Amino acid sequence: MLETAAQRDDGPLLARVRDRIEAFASQYPARFAIVVFAVLNIIWTLLFMTPLATRGDEPPASFIDALFTAVSVICVTGLATVDMATHWSPFGNALVLVGVQVGGIGVLTLASLLGMTVARRLGLKQRLMAAGDTNPSRVRKGVVKEGQAIRLGDVGGLLKIIALSVLTIEAVLILLLLPRILLEGVPFWDALYQSVYYAFMSFTNSGFIPTVEGLTPYATDPWFLGVIMLGVFMGALGFPVYFVLLRNLKHPRLWSLHVKLTLFGSLGLFVAGGLAYLVLELGNADSWGDADFGQQLLQSLFMSTMSRSGGFATHDLSELNNSSLLVTDMLMFIGGGSASTAGGVKVTTLMILFLAAIAEARGRKSMEAFGRRIPSDVLRLAVSVVLWGATIVAASTILLLQITHEPLDYVLFDVISAFATCGLSTGFTHGDLPWAAKAVLAATMFVGRIGSVTLAAALAASQTQQLFTRPEERPIVG
């Protein structure tokens, strides 16, 4: 009888808690996603602070280092204030591997999954938000070709595509990396662990390294670097791209405009970035500028891929020419595809701004691409995303310059890397940074990762009908 009474007491309580969470998630999907993301960061921080997470000869991580690591892991950034290869125990490394997987699938997807778990269904607002994040135009007034986008009824299918793509791509990466690591003389189980680690970090665009020597044994190996590049590039495309390609792989005419812009922009940035590094680092003996042409090309393309959110590096980035650092700043700020494991303001945002400039130069009233007209509200979204990102980067840079008094180029580089969840560093981010500087970088990573979700939700919430128009007047621009 006592057990039955306890169950009766707990039943309504659990039901009320579930109902409140469901109501909050339905009414405020953006806040729900951000709260879930913040809670995950807090949980990982507490776990990283436990003695179980560090090696026996290492003291437990301090709060600020545990917080920084947790945010970097969950935000799939790759920056670190401790030696990731030596500081953490097997339990700590397991936290890293699980954390990048959780963070890699995206804040929005995680919120949707938890919403389904709690409410046993995906509510209309969550579906609107999911569709809006994968295609922000979905929540705007106007024609959207639903066959080429994520429809409300397709959100469940998108979540399945995410799970299958993550498992499949990472399994292929593991199989490709394992033989090469074995050839280096690494014992089988260590090689398997390293291949799993590299596969996870490349696809999630995290960039953490499992060994003390890092990429040094493979720094000139085309196979190993090529596989890492493949994983980063695939992770940075975005799950909506996979969703459309898997349904219409043999029919390019049916590909959505988002898919075409993402593929065209990603390949264009990959080639343009590689050519820029090839030219700018030519003759630089401190990097790869004095190697043979094959190595110069390999390293330039590798750096071009990693700058877009990959986070791996085969050379000391502080030794690059300042012009190359500036190019890296630009590529990191752009980032990868929408709803992907990459960060930044996204490739499609850049493409929209580029198309707007072309339309203005040609005197056309609207943007056009691949036989489609793009509405002006998409341009307003792109401008908002860029301005939001630039404001965050500027504010964080100013704070860190005031705190550390370090050179501007190094501080700006690491701030953009944090905002775009890239993980590359010139050496500014290290364990001896003041706690305030670590806190600023951690906040920059967090805000950079959740930014797209907040903007997508703001779009959905800002759809109000205006029954009047004000008098028109044109200010002077330029």
UniProtKB/TrEMBL annotation:
One of its GO terms (molecular function) is monoatomic cation transmembrane transporter activity. It is a multi-pass membrane protein. GO terms for cellular component: plasma membrane. GO terms for biological process: metal ion transport. Keywords: Cell membrane, Ion transport, Membrane, Transmembrane, Transmembrane helix, Transport. The keyword Oxidoreductase does not apply. It comes from the Bacteria. It is found in: Cell membrane. Its main location: membrane. The chain crosses the membrane at residues 28-49, 61-82, 94-119, 161-183, 223-245, 257-280, 330-357, 378-404, 440-461. This is Trk-type K+ transport system, membrane component. It comes from Agrococcus jejuensis.
